[in-house]
């Protein structure tokens, strides 16, 4: 329902931990058909207007406590859905973990590297990305190296290994986490951001839940499932940071009404369909769910088990 093909795919729910998994893993050739050239992870930072990049950097410097910015403070105080217009919460999460600007950071499943350029913009200087599905080794507009390879092929150790909505796209979650464990420094951590079935959105919408996103999402873990997966490779869940917003409601409502996301013509169309009051109520509800640990997506901080 992202691109409106309306094809159906079979999934199963683990009876033990409520983790959702696809029954038949698609071949790379077949899967490629379900990623259009304008899929969001392929967009380059060079396409982002300069004023938007500046606003994002103001917010990020505020989150990292590296400079006083009235604009950054205002953006930081906005509801999550509005704040999301100025970039996702990954920099806030790194700031909460006290990550040093010289930390060795790799973004796995980096796509065009737009997130890496965002980190470079605020002073992170030891960055790289890995993604076996990019066309070739390259660099981002800000010079961050991007490697066309799987994490298991990458050499060196890292202080932070990020999976920003990429781990749910691989068929072997355990194997990928195991490769990450071998490349973590002793005090390092993995930041895994992904959707979770331990959420009100999954309970309410089921197969119409927007972050089900068949067939691109192979595995969508519950919170317990994420803890089991981490333990299987010698990691532990050190922190969980919910970061859902009103998207979980309005996008799922669209799908429930048989409206594909590609058929929506911008923010104005969404406002016309639902009204500002309903969207605002969904934002406040999302904030409450985040506080209660029931949001549709979260950042899991995984560290090596003692």
TrEMBL record:
GO molecular function, a single term = methyltransferase activity
Please indicate if the UniProt record lists Amino-acid biosynthesis as a keyword: no
Specify the domain of life of the species encoding this protein: Bacteria
Q: Please name the GO terms of the biological process aspect recorded for this protein, alphabetically.
A: methylation
Q: Does the keyword Cytoplasm apply?
A: no
Query: Sorted alphabetically, which keywords does the UniProt record give?
Result: Methyltransferase, Transferase
Which CDD domains did the record assign?
A: AdoMet_MTases
What protein does this entry describe? Answer: Class I SAM-dependent methyltransferase
Organism of origin: Mycobacterium hippophais
From the broadest rank down, the organism's phylogenetic lineage runs: Bacteria, Bacillati, Actinomycetota, Actinomycetes, Mycobacteriales
């Amino acid at each position: 329902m992202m691109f409106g093909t309306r094809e159906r795919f079979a999934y199963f729910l683990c009876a033990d931990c409520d983790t959702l998994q696809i029954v038949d893993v698609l071949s790379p050739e077949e899967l490629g058909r379900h990623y259009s050239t304008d899929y969001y992870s392929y967009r380059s930072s060079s396409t982002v207007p300069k004023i938007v990049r500046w606003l994002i950097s103001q917010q990020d410097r505020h989150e990292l406590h590296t400079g006083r910015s009235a604009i950054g403070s205002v953006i930081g105080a906005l509801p999550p859905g509005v704040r999301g217009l100025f970039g996702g919460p990954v920099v806030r999460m790194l700031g909460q973990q006290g990550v040093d600007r010289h930390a060795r950071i790799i973004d796995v499943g980096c796509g065009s590297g737009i997130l890496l350029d965002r980190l470079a913009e605020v002073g992170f200087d030891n960055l790289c990305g890995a993604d076996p599905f990019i066309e070739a080794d390259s660099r981002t507009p800000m010079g961050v190296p991007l490697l066309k390879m799987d994490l298991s092929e990458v050499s060196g150790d890292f202080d932070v290994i990020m999976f920003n909505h990429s781990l749910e796209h691989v068929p072997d979650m355990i194997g990928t986490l195991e490769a990450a464990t071998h490349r973590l420094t002793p005090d390092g951590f993995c930041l895994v951001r992904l959707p979770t079935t331990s959420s009100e959105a999954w309970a309410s919408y089921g197969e119409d839940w927007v972050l089900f996103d068949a067939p691109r999402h192979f595995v969508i873990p519950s919170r317990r499932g994420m803890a089991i997966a981490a333990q299987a490779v010698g990691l532990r869940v050190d922190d969980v940071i919910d970061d859902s917003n009103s998207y979980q409601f309005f996008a799922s409502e669209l799908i429930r009404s048989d409206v594909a996301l590609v058929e929506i013509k911008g923010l104005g169309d969404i406002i016309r369909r639902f009204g500002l009051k309903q969207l605002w109520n969904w934002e406040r509800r999302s904030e409450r769910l985040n506080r209660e640990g029931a949001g549709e997506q979260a950042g899991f901080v995984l560290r090596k088990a003692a």
